[in-house]
Amino acid sequence: MNRNRAIEISKSPNLKHVTYQGKRVYIQHVHKTSDMAKVYLLDDPTKEFEVQLDQLEER
Questions:
Q1: 3-class secondary structure, 35
Q2: DSSP SS3 for 1
Q3: Is the distance from CB of 56 to CB of 1 less than 8 angstroms?
Q4: Measured between alpha carbons, how far is 21 from 31 in angstroms, rounded to an integer?
Q5: DSSP 8-state assignment for residue 54
Q6: One CATH from 2.30.30, 2.40.160, 1.10.3470, 2.60.40 for 3-58
Q7: Binning pLDDT at 50, 70 and 90, where does residue 5 land?
Q8: Which residues is 36 bridged to in the sheet?
Q9: Are residues 53 and 18 in contact, defined by beta-carbon separation less than 8 angstroms?
C-alpha cells in the first residue's frame, strides 16, 4: 500500500476494507520515519502489531 493512502485511511472516520495476509485490519498509525504501520485485527482488537506498508492491501 502507498504511504499516503495508508495515512489517509488511518485518519478517515470511515472504516475501509484493508487486509494483511487475507485478514481484515484497522490501521492505527503510520510511522513517520519508516514504511511501517501499527495495525490490529478487526476480529481480535487485542492483537496489535506492526507491518510493512507494502504488505497491506485495500479492497
A1: coil
A2: coil
A3: yes
A4: 20
A5: G
A6: 2.30.30
A7: very high
A8: 52
A9: no
Q: What is the mean pLDDT of the chain?
A: 96
State how far the alpha carbon of 40 is from the alpha carbons of 48, 49, in Å: 4, 6
Indicate left, alpha or beta for 21 from its phi (over 0: left) and psi (-120 to 50: alpha).
left
Q: What is the largest CA-CA distance in the chain?
A: 29
Gyration radius (Cα) of the chain, Å: 10
Q: Give the residue carrying C-alpha cell 487475507.
A: 22
Write the pLDDT tens digit of every residue in 9-37.
999 999 999 999 999 999 999 999 999 99
